[in-house]
What does this fold into?
Amino acid sequence: MLKMLWNDEAGFIISAELVLVATLLVIGLIVGLSEVQHAVVSELNDVADAIGELNQTYSYSGFNKCDFNGRIHAVTYGSDFEDQRDDCDNNQCDIACDAPTNETGKQF
It folds into this structure.
């Protein structure tokens, strides 16, 4: 039985080289996914900036209907709206990374 176990080649041996290669692959995968995350957030930020640049200001004038004697029969009043800047228009907000902060102690 010991001779059969010694000659058995059906198993898998975890060697130091395999552990090193797997560790490097995992580290590379983490770095790659982090870069993909930053690229996606950057592109979504560009889309948000483009939407924020849309000017939603509008106005329309009113009108009325008068007869020949000057009496007003119907009136529609005008309206207007002026679009103001929002908080995060034009890349004012950073979504990807915040500055590191120290941990605070327990508050009693």
In short: The chain has two helices and four strands.
